């Protein structure tokens, strides 16, 4: 009998083994769909009161690991399993408050009156009140915001005497800004602009831990495409059928392997752009070599391993040449910031009553706003030559701003200005050499108020503008001859005000703003407004009325005393070598 049972057991084992495949296809698991690890989050402090339980829950919300295990530890058994938080969340100031909601509960020690129903001493209602700084959207982008935030929680004493949250927590998490910064890293994901032939940074925020998974999380963002704030302004190089064949892998030799699939039939030019996009996007998370494969072969034929130094200088055309030192308008003339001398031609010799001006990024063309009696008009043409007039009507024109030269199209051939703070005029050079006025759909931007300053980014994908003293960034979406400004976002709302001027900074994802603030007159901001840092205010006299910035250039600002320069945030401002009172500086762009 024992032998029979032993034989049967062996037979069952053999049958089971026969159903196990000798090989299995690898399965890519994205960061979002990765299996949740065991909840090893520590339990809340023993005997913590309801206020502390809710407060610690809010602080734990910034840790997304293991399905928000750190936050679930503060929920009772029922809510731990049922809670499904949204991927997006609201970021609030770290100085939020937690208070008992007296309208919903009374103190456990209170003595009920004979006419009232005795409150349950084991249940408390706690309200959280804070100030909104913005939201992290489902596509991992920061969207600035302001205003109050409030959530209410019911906290119940458990059988073991410990307090836990017993009501379903709101699906939209509140996360404090300090905990957000400690748990999320900013990454600059690159997307290609076919219009300017450059790569445009798309700031996103990904969980910082585990650090080894950062390249995989960045690759997920690349495949998902640009954030809502850049959709339509840049090109998604990946088709719907492109995916990762295997998870992004750290190799024993220190390199990183990215294996793509679904790129059959993709042109060599697009493959090279995809390689550049991946390498540029990975710069902030790895410095190692990256092995790029597609469908089992090198993504780019003959080039399997990549470093950032292997990527061509796609953004060279969107950065001013080093020999273009900048210009300034002063006394109706345009002079050089390099030597203070007037530029050649009518714009420098006083023939035009210059109010403001802009030099194209390639340095070859000039746009000038000229005072003509009690009105103004625009002049556009080649630097050093007479500039033909373009009558736009209106009583005011903003300082012009140039679109970068289109890929393979020669010098810059499009310049923008704002007419009467309400209409964006887009001047385009036609094949016959005439500047024709075309429109820009700026309805979403104008809904915020009248436009003061308008600056096109040097990659052409965004604009920065001052609207009612606030700083706003929007994307530039082109479809044929139609141009639309989309997704306008006010940066640092409620904090940054009285902005007098703005320029794009030393990198494509930064801005420099001049304000009338006596204590912090010059600010550097990330393009999404998440970060703002003040330059040193020493030597400056408020208000600062103008600012000029560009890659590999010092910042130049203008105040009542003249022009000042600095390169670092903490650096004391120095007089510009050829400073003149009432001068307004500008770099190409």
From TrEMBL:
Transmembrane segments: none annotated. Residues 1-18 form the signal peptide. Residues 215-303 form the GerMN domain. Pfam families: Germane (PF10646), Gmad1 (PF10647), LpqB_N (PF25976). Keywords: Signal. InterPro entries: GerMN (IPR019606), LpqB_C (IPR018910), LpqB_N (IPR059026). PROSITE patterns: PROKAR_LIPOPROTEIN. It comes from the Bacteria. The keyword Signal applies. The keyword Amino-acid biosynthesis does not apply. This is Sporulation and spore germination protein. It comes from Amycolatopsis echigonensis. The lineage of its organism: Bacteria, Bacillati, Actinomycetota, Actinomycetes, Pseudonocardiales.
């Amino acid at each position: 009998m024992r032998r029979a049972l032993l034989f049967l057991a062996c037979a069952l084992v053999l049958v089971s083994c026969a159903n196990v495949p000798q090989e299995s296809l690898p399965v890519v698991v994205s960061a979002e769909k990765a299996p949740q690890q065991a909840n090893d989050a520590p339990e809340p402090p023993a005997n913590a009161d309801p206020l502390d339980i809710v407060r610690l829950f809010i602080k734990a919300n910034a840790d997304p690991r293991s399905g928000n295990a750190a936050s679930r530890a503060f929920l009772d058994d029922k809510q731990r399993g049922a809670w499904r938080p949204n991927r997006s969340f609201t970021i609030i100031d770290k100085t939020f408050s937690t208070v008992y909601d007296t309208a919903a509960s009374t103190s456990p020690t209170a003595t009920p009156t004979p006419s009232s129903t005795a409150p349950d001493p084991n249940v408390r209602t706690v309200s959280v009140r804070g100030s909104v700084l913005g939201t992290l959207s489902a596509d991992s982008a920061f969207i600035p915001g302001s205003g109050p935030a409030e959530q209410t929680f019911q906290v119940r004493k458990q059988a073991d005497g410990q307090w836990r949250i017993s009501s379903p927590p709101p699906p939209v998490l509140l996360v404090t800004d300090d905990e957000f910064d400690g748990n999320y890293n900013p990454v600059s994901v690159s997307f290609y602009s076919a219009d300017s032939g450059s790569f445009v940074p798309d700031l996103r925020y990904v969980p910082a831990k585990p650090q080894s998974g950062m390249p995989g999380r960045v690759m997920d963002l690349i495949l998902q495409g640009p954030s809502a704030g850049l959709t339509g302004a840049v090109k998604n190089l990946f088709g719907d059928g492109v995916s990762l064949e295997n998870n992004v892998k750290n190799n024993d030799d220190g390199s990183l392997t990215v294996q793509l699939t679904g790129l059959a039939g993709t042109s060599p030019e697009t493959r090279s752009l995809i390689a550049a996009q991946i390498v540029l996007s990975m710069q902030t998370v790895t410095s190692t070599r990256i092995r790029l494969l597609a469908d089992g072969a090198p993504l780019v034929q003959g080039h399997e391993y990549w470093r950032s130094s292997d990527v061509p200088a796609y953004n060279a055309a969107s950065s001013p040449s080093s020999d273009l030192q900048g210009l300034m308008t002063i006394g109706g003339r345009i002079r050089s910031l390099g030597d203070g001398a007037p530029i050649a031609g009518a714009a420098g010799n006083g023939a035009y009553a210059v109010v403001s001006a802009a030099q194209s990024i390639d340095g070859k063309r000039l746009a000038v706003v000229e005072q003509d009696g009690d009105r103004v008009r625009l002049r556009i043409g080649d630097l050093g030559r007479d500039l033909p007039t373009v009558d736009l009507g209106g009583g005011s024109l903003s300082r012009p701003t140039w679109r970068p030269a289109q890929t393979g199209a020669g010098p810059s051939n499009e310049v923008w200005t704002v007419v009467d703070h309400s209409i964006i005029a887009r001047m385009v050079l036609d094949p016959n050499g005439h500047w024709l006025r075309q429109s820009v759909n700026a309805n979403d931007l104008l809904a915020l108020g009248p436009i003061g300053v308008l600056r096109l980014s040097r990659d052409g994908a965004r604009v920065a503008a001052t609207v009612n003293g606030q700083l706003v960034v929007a994307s530039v979406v082109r479809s044929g001859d139609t141009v639309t400004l989309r997704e306008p976002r006010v940066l640092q709302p409620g904090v940054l005000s009285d902005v007098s001027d703005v320029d794009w900074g030393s990198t494509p994802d930064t801005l420099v703003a001049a304000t009338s603030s006596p204590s912090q007159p010059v600010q550097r901001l990330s393009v999404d407004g998440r970060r703002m840092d003040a330059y040193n205010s020493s030597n400056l006299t408020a208000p600062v009325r103008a600012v000029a910035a560009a890659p590999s250039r010092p910042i130049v600002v203008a105040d009542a005393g003249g022009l000042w320069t600095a390169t670092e945030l903490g650096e004391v401002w120095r007089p510009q070598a050829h400073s003149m009172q009432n001068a307004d500086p500008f770099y190409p762009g």
